[in-house]
Task: structure prediction
Amino acid sequence: MRSYRLALLVTLTCAAIPASAQRLCELVPAAVVQSTLGIPVTLTAAPNTQGGNGCDYKGISTGPITITADTISDAGMYKTIFDQRLHSLGPTQQLVSGIGDAAYYDFKQGQQIPKYPGVNFTQQSIVFRAKGKIVNFILMIPGDGVPKASMLALANYTISKPINTLKDPT
Result:
């Protein structure tokens, strides 16, 4: 009887601890990205661990819609790079308050992809520090982009999830 109680206690304790192997695609599903950004086409999600614990979201309209998302520990070289960026923003970048511990937003219109001649794309990014992670979302979409408020809402949604449990690739 005693061993069953111990097994039950261990099972309940382990169930309460978030799985550290979770992927960003699981924490921020494609349907949430699609609805939060107001994208009118269905998005799919695929894990991407090149450079972080990330996710690639894709959809098709007059050209491809891609959202690349990555998380990495807010330590060492990544912390230094992020801190330097906050103090030397480019002409299309601006600090954003109310998103995690620190954040900046970037907006570039009129981007071209050689494979899609004549189609203008907008690139939008939100990069933020929260819960010991640096997270970025980069949206590339045909046309004029999505409202800035939608990108900020996606960041806030992400912060509401246990991103601190995401493991960095080894």
